[in-house]
Specification:
single chain; mainly alpha; Clc chloride channel; CBS-domain; 3 domains; two-stranded antiparallel ribbon
Length: 654
Amino acid sequence: MDEHNAQASAAKHPLSWIPEFFTLTRSRVRSNSRMLGAAVLVGIVAGVGAVLFQLACQIVVYLALNCGVGYFPKEPAGEHAVFWLEPAILDAQAHNAFQPWLLLLVPTIGGIISGVIVFSLAPEAEGHGTDAVIAAYHDRKGKIRYRVPIIKTIASAITIGSGGSGGREGPIAQIGAGFGFFLANILGFKASERRILMAAGMGAGIAAIFRAPLAGALFAAEVLYWSPEFEPEVIMPAGLASVVSYCTFGLFFSDGWRPLFDTPNLTFDNPWQLGPYLLLAVCMIVLAMIYTRSFYGLTNLFHHLPMIRHFKPAIGAFLTGAIGVALFYAFDNQSVLAVLAFGYGALQMAISDSVQQAAGADALWLAAILAAISVGKILTTGLTIGSGGSGGVFGPSMVIGGCGAGALGLVLKVLLTYVGWGAAVPAPAAFVIVGMAGFFAAAAKTPFSTMVIVSEMTGNYNLILPALFVCTLAFLFSDRQSLYKNQVMSRSMSPAHQGAYVREVLAGLQVRLFLDPQWQGPVLHPEDPVTGVIDRFEDADLDILPVIDAENHYLGMVSLEEIFLATQSTHAQALLLTADLMRTDVTPLRPDDGLDRAMELFAESDLLALPVVDEAQGKRVVGVVKRHDVAGDYLRRLHEPKSAILTRAAQAKR
């Protein structure tokens, strides 16, 4: 009684929560210390990898486009060349005249070099790297060849820097994921932990290169599935790795702490604007369908092209340059050359004051330029990446969605202003930002991380409400086709979680489900001669028979295979007893064992049936359960609605 009163008194003490707090905190830190410590290291490497990749891209752009072609792509406001390269760029700008025809030659040379490097050293580095990381997560236990991130970095810098259309998230995702796999191997992580660390590395790379740490963590957890499902185990390690990688990247660039784009002060304060945003969502869905289908259509076309694959990227790069040159002469404006390389300058232009203030014919002309960039970028990205070139698809998606939405915003502004409804039209810049998010949500099936990443890239959080509205609609009404073909529908469909889902399906079910209360099956005794045992197997239609003593207590079991081997010798079978062939190393089932435990014992023993014993009755044999009966019940329940499975599990717990 005194002890009970002392405990009650302690529980009421105002400081009694302190020991419990420290115990809980210590438990959390201890259980996650290895993973979170590894996530910090992955974040550092991902940040440094983002720095090196950024420098590599800037150097290739300077040599190939600035010096070679005399073309100087416009940059977003938050991104400039590293300080020691800026004087050389200014000097090239002063002395190198723009020669459009070289845009046919320079990207082609870049395609040749990239193709030879990739297909000679690491063929899996072709295309967009994020999809390869997703495949490694689901199907390869988080394994990535060590050379792939290095080859991907070099090939992508050459492909994009020479004028090919691609993004930076693919190579940087493989850098982070590749180091995550490398570190997990060194630390002896099991497969499930290795997958988590690899995904955290992917998110950390995204966080650094796009200045978006929160979005990096969410993207790593969301991009693995094309349904509205997350990978919850990934979020905390990816969040820590993303913060570290973002800070690491910021230390090396003076503008590394600011958002990628400068945006005007945009707000949402008129619910009538949801009407135009609804139209924007519909247009982004259609544009995303065109993008994904053309992308994989061109990929399939190049795949079946009868030539050495090392040189296919050169064909795609040449056609990419041809589209850029054709648009330049059609519009007589260098802005349309955003269909080449990164193209982020077109987004900065679309949200600039000059575009926002345009009216009448000028606004329609700018809308035509933005529409041409959007459509042209769809073609050039499909040609560059689909032909085997190396690069990501996120960056081009931002340009396609943002420019397409900007064109729609300008047209609506002109039309609705003409009829006196101009107040109901959001600013074209708002359309650009929300369109970037909505387009990628439809194309990649990642509505929430995309909404956050666009907000972080632009530094504008005032448009969260319309972005959420458009992203939700774009995701819900988009079709099944995704930019990332290795996404799976849900955790239950992922090979990475098959074992866990088997347990979920079988939750609450016990071995007694398969027992006959009136079971009087054949059994063996240790002194039974082997010659008489075969007939009992035929009568029982079983692969194993239990062996019991005189009091019906379980001693072991004999398998049909062992009996068959023993009967091959006529002399031996006359001398052998059941005790000579009895196995005692097989763990029997119990009536209250869960079916997940039964599946484990079947796998452990490699038998098609197991005896069931009642421990409360001194290991009395009460039946035999067949493996295919349990498997058949699992398959039947697998097709039940998931809600029914969870309800049954909850009832079993009660």
